[in-house]
Structures are given as structure tokens and as C-alpha cells.
TrEMBL record:
This is Galactose-3-O-sulfotransferase 2. GO terms for cellular component: Golgi membrane. The chain crosses the membrane at residues 15-34, 46-63. Keywords: Glycoprotein, Golgi apparatus, Membrane, Signal-anchor, Transferase, Transmembrane, Transmembrane helix. It is a single-pass type II membrane protein. The keyword Transmembrane helix applies. The keyword Signal does not apply. It is found in: Golgi apparatus membrane.
Length: 604
């Protein structure tokens, strides 16, 4: 009966493997022949042994060939896996300017899966590896022009070399580990990833004629970070090229900071009187979806961070009158009683705590020992990575300007500046090492964000410009600045506000800080004077000048309204300074009035 089932077995085997089936078929006939002979023979036990031996060999041959065929199948799978891995690496290399940028892309995925941030997108909640694989597929299809995943990439190829992969010794170990744990990667929308966009842009700036100066720009003006100096650069560039600015509504100096930005805060948006905005750069609390409603899709987003230690010292002097600081005699006293003096729900207290995070639109209220501090920092970093093409560092201002120049494809002359909004030296308070540590702890969220972008800044310098070229261009920039100072400035440098002759060039004074400004060299021709004057015009005056240029009728109406409302102030308005100086003070009040009148209009 065993023999009778053999043909069936063999046919089923042959169904699996045709060649082996033929071989086994022949074997079957041999065995049948042997059985017949064996049964007729005197030595039939020997024949039976021989038959069993032949069957054993046949079965063994079959099992071995089956295993080999299984391995082949596995190998096919393996090749697909390796291909995807390779493509993933390739994709990371394409998408990043440094390994950190890759990690940041990864963290952006984490962020996108988290609901408590202000950034939303359609892929929230999807599994990260699904998204990742879809991106790999997408890159694959883009690279090959195919719609299906059929083309093989040699699994033996090594991934592309990563750039700027050195660890940052200042980075807390916990943060590094956290990043490694969250080292996923992937963007979930169709927009180009900012870091890859930047790399592509800078490469093209160096190599081909495809480098076109960028004129759609959003600069998130953070506080006490040299942001007024950058604003002046953007104002001058835009004015000289007749670009339009997304200026604050109702002639305000800020985009209704500290309220989260809304598109209606921009003059010309609700009235639809401006067709296209080029540059947005006034103080705002960042809110990407709303900003994107105003600015074109190809807009370049950048911002600047300052070491929270230096920043806090500057902020404490400047915003000394906010409730959180007002009772403290010095910064140490405030820091020692931080949580006791700080009530986050009191207006303006946000200046005292993680203000960088606040300006970028995140919740700034978190303690250094909070369980989720690393998580929150990672998510903030990821979101910034996703929304911004470039983050500059105040401590390396000149290097930052060179990087910006490359990113925007501008000329060296376009990024030249004088230091604006700087304090007189005696109002600087050197900090003790202990105080610095307390600040890092108090602003733990900002500290982590700063450390991250300080590191990625240098990776960008290394990979996109190179140390040598950076040095060369920084010295060219400083040379140009020195020449300009020689031509434009009366006293060769900044002076106290009391010494500034032209009231239109006096910077806004606030808090305990003495903010310096400049006097113009009187011996320069008209054309040079215009250029020099723009370089030293403080933020409030320059914003008003641009508003008047862009909205002459509205500006005239505002002046008239102010005159009608407060005739007793006419004298100070004629000088133009007190009105501008009070603008920051009153803008919250005006905003509330504006919001309420809108709400009332809607309700009626
Ligand atoms: N070029 C350059 N390099 C380095 N540092 C610079 C530069 N320009 C301005 N600053 C310093 O930036 C501080 C003012 O920052 P902001 O203009 O952002 O202030 S504000 O928020 O708009 O009021 C202010 O810092 P403090 O002097 O410590 O207060 C300025 O001195």
C-alpha cells in the first residue's frame, strides 16, 4: 500500500518542483522494477533494503531542494528589505544636510503624531513605519519614474556618507539618548523638507545659474536675539527692491504679539488690498498654518536663537517692569524664587520664562524636572525643524549672516548691518557661573532648543559653506561693515540716546536698559545719506515709514484719527517719537478693542 501511494506522493512533489518531479518519476519506475524483481528473487530481503535505501535518497534529495527553494524565496524578501533600507538611507541623505537634520526629520514625525502641538496635518496618528515606507516608495518612484516597486537597487551598496555627524559635547546625554530612541524619520506632507530644501538651494547657489535671490521670506523675530538688526536688513532689502511687507494691522509695530498669529493681523489681508506679500518679519507668536495663509508656498522661513543665559540677562533688564520681575532686586533673587514670583496667567509674564519656546508658538510653562521635559523639547525641536529652513545663532551673528546670504542667494552687501538695539555697557550685568546654571534650569526648554540648533548650525556651516570659505566671507563682511561705519557714522560707533541729534534715529527706550543708537556723518552726499540712514533707522520708525509707503491713505487716516482723539498729544506727535514709543505699550489694549469690536460686529 505504501507503493500504491507513491505515485500520488511523487506527482504532488513534482507539482512543486518540475525538474525534481521528473527525476522522482524515473526513480519511481526504477523502484517498481526493483520491487518486482525483488519479490521474484530468493534474496528478496536484500532487495527490500535496496528499495528503502533508494526511497531514503529520494526523500532526502526532495527535502534538501525544498529547503533551498525556501531560502530563495526568503532571499527575495530579504532583497526587498535591504533595498528599502538602502533607499531609506538614500532618502535620508537626500533629505538632510547633516545627520542631525535627519534626526530632526525623525522627530518631526513624532511631533506629527502628537496632538498637543499647534501643528496639525492629515497623517496624524498613522504608524511611523507606514509613513516611512510610503516615503521610501515615493522617493523610489520619483527617482525611477516608476509607479511600482519593481526595480532593484544593489543591496551591496553602502549608504551615502552622512555629513557633520560629530556629537555635541554640550548636549545633555539624556537628550542624545532620547533622540536616538526617537530616531524615526519622515515628513508626512508633500512640501519639501526645509533642511533638504536649504541644501538644494545652497548647492545650486554655488554650482549653477539656478540660484535666484529669494524674496518670499518669513523671519520669526524672537526677543533680545539681535532680531532688530536682522529686521533692518530685511527692511532695507525689501525697500530697495520694491517688495511688499506683511505689516501689522492698524499701523501697529508688532503682529499683535503675544497673541498667537492670525492672518487677519496683517494689513491688507482682510481688505484684500495686497495681492502678494514678500516679507513678514515683525514680532509675532508663530503659528504656521495662519502664516501660510498670508505667505506664498515657496516662502523661506528662518529665525534666530540666542543663548538663554545672555538672553535672560538682557530680558531681565529690558522687561524689568513685568509682574514676574518687578519684585526682584536682581536676577538671582528672581531665579531663587522663580515659581513663587511667576504666575503664568498674568499678562506679560511669558517674557520671564522659556520665551524662545513661547515665540515659536509652544507652551513655555514647564519645570526642568518635569517628567516630559525631554519629550516636549524633542517635539518643539522637530516642529521647528519642519517649519523653518534655517535657524541662526546670535552668538555667531556674522557667520549667521553668511549662512543666510547663501540660503537666500543674496550678495554680501545685502547682509551688511550695524548692531541695533544694543544696551550701553554699564547696563550689562556679568553673570556668576552659578547664575548661569540657574538660568539654564529655569529655562530648561529653551536651553535644550538652543543646544540643538547651536549644533545643527555648525553642521550646516560645515556641510554647506565650509570652514575656510566661512572665515573668508566673515572677514569680507567685517571689512565692508568697517568701511560703511567709516562713511556713515559721525562718531564711528553707537552712542547713548541722549547724544543722538536726529529724533527720528533715536531707538525706543524701555525698562532699565539704555538702548544705544547712531548719529549720521553730516559730510555725505544725498544718495549715500539715504543708504546710511536706512542702516541706522530703529525698528519702530522704519516700520512706520514702510507702512506709510505701502498704505499712504490708511497712514494718513491714522494720523488724522490720532489727532482727533488726542489733541493734547499733538505736540509730541509732531516729533513722531512719543507716539511710536507708546505703540508697544498700547498695542495689547488696541488689540483687545479691535477683537471686541469685531466680535460685536459679528454678534450684531
Ligand atoms: N549684530 C549683533 N550681534 C550680536 N548681538 C547683537 C547684534 N545686534 C544686536 N544685538 C544684541 O541683540 C539684543 C537686542 O535684540 P533684539 O533686537 O532682538 O531686541 S528686541 O526684542 O527687538 O527688543 C541686544 O542685546 P543686549 O545688549 O544684551 O540687550 C543687542 O546688543
Amino acid at each position: 500500500m505504501a507503493l500504491s501511494s507513491l505515485p500520488v506522493l511523487l506527482s504532488s512533489l513534482s507539482g512543486h518542483i518540475p525538474v525534481l518531479g521528473t527525476f522522482l518519476g524515473l526513480l519511481f519506475f526504477c523502484v517498481v522494477w526493483c520491487v518486482r524483481r525483488g519479490l521474484c528473487s530468493r534474496h528478496h530481503s536484500l532487495w527490500i533494503l535496496l528499495i528503502l535505501f533508494v526511497i531514503c535518497i529520494a526523500v532526502q534529495t526532495f527535502v534538501a531542494s525544498q529547503a533551498r527553494s525556501d531560502k530563495l524565496t526568503e532571499l527575495t524578501h530579504l532583497r526587498i528589505t535591504v533595498n528599502k533600507h538602502h533607499l531609506f538611507t538614500l532618502w535620508k541623505s537626500l533629505h538632510s544636510t547633516s545627520s542631525l537634520a535627519v534626526q530632526q526629520d525623525g522627530r518631526s514625525l513624532q511631533t506629527e503624531r502628537t496632538s498637543d502641538l499647534h501643528h496639525h496635518n492629515g497623517e496624524y496618528g498613522k504608524r511611523s513605519d507606514d509613513i516611512l515606507l510610503r516615503h521610501v516608495d515615493k522617493i523610489f518612484n520619483i527617482a525611477t519614474g516608476s509607479q511600482t516597486e519593481t526595480i532593484k537597487v544593489s543591496p551591496g551598496k553602502r549608504p551615502l556618507a552622512k555629513l557633520g555627524n560629530e556629537p555635541n559635547p554640550e548636549l545633555p546625554r539624556s537628550l542624545v539618548l532620547h533622540r536616538a530612541r526617537k530616531g524615526l524619520t519622515g515628513r508626512t506632507d508633500n512640501l519639501p523638507c526645509p533642511s533638504s530644501f536649504l541644501k538644494a538651494h545652497i548647492n545650486s547657489a554655488h554650482t549653477s545659474s539656478t540660484c535666484h535671490p529669494k524674496s518670499h521670506i518669513v523671519f520669526l523675530k524672537t526677543h533680545k536675539t539681535a532680531s532688530s538688526t536682522i529686521l533692518n536688513i530685511l527692511y532695507r532689502y525689501g525697500e530697495s527692491k520694491n517688495l511688499t511687507f506683511a505689516l501689522p494691522l492698524n499701523k501697529q509695530s508688532q503682529l499683535f504679539y503675544p497673541f498667537s498669529f492670525e492672518s487677519r493681523f496683517v494689513e491688507g489681508v482682510s481688505s484684500r488690498t495686497v495681492r502678494e506679500f514678500h516679507i513678514m518679519c515683525n514680532h509675532m507668536r508663530f503659528n504656521k498654518p495662519e502664516v501660510a495663509k498670508v505667505m506664498p508656498e515657496n516662502t523661506f522661513y528662518f529665525s534666530i536663537l540666542r543663548n538663554p543665559v545672555n538672553m535672560m540677562e538682557s530680558i531681565f533688564m529690558y522687561y524689568k517692569s513685568i509682574p514676574a520681575f518687578s519684585n526682584a532686586h536682581n536676577l538671582d533673587e528672581f531665579l531663587d524664587n522663580g515659581w513663587k514670583n511667576y504666575n503664568s496667567s498674568v499678562s506679560n509674564n511669558h517674557y520671564a520664562h522659556n520665551i524662545l519656546a513661547f515665540d515659536f508658538g509652544f507652551d513655555n510653562n514647564i519645570a526642568a524636572d518635569a517628567e516630559d521635559i525631554e519629550e516636549r523639547a524633542s517635539m518643539a525641536i522637530a516642529a521647528i525643524e519642519r517649519d523653518f529652513h534655517l535657524i541662526l545663532i546670535t552668538e555667531y551673528f556674522d557667520e549667521s549672516m553668511i549662512l543666510l546670504k547663501h540660503a537666500l542667494c543674496w550678495a554680501l552687501e545685502d547682509v551688511v548691518s550695524f548692531k541695533l538695539n544694543s544696551r550701553r555697557q554699564p547696563t550689562h550685568h556679568p553673570l556668576l557661573a552659578n547664575t548661569a546654571e540657574k538660568i539654564k534650569r529655569w529655562n530648561a526648554l529653551d536651553w535644550r532648543i538652543y543646544l540643538h540648533f547651536n549644533t545643527s548650525f555648525w553642521h550646516k556651516v560645515n556641510s554647506l559653506v565650509g570652514q575656510e570659505q566661512m572665515k573668508r566671507e566673515v572677514s569680507q563682511l567685517r571689512e565692508l561693515q568697517a568701511k560703511l561705519a567709516n562713511t556713515c557714522l559721525k562718531d564711528g560707533g553707537a552712542v547713548d540716546p541722549s547724544q543722538i541729534k536726529d529724533a527720528r534715529l533715536k531707538p525706543f527706550q524701555y525698562g532699565s536698559a539704555v538702548i544705544q543708537g547712531y548719529n549720521l556723518n553730516p559730510h555725505i552726499d544725498r544718495q549715500t545719506k539715504t543708504k546710511c540712514q536706512r542702516l541706522i533707522t530703529p525698528e519702530l520708525q522704519y516700520t512706520e515709514h514702510l507702512y506709510t509707503q505701502q498704505f499712504p491713505e490708511l497712514a494718513a487716516k491714522h494720523i488724522q484719527a490720532m489727532r482727533n482723539a488726542a489733541p493734547q498729544r499733538q505736540h509730541s506727535e509732531r516729533t513722531g517719537i512719543r507716539r511710536m514709543a507708546s505703540a508697544r505699550e498700547v498695542h495689547h489694549r488696541q488689540f483687545r478693542r479691535h477683537t471686541f469690536s469685531n466680535l460685536n460686529q459679528k454678534a450684531s
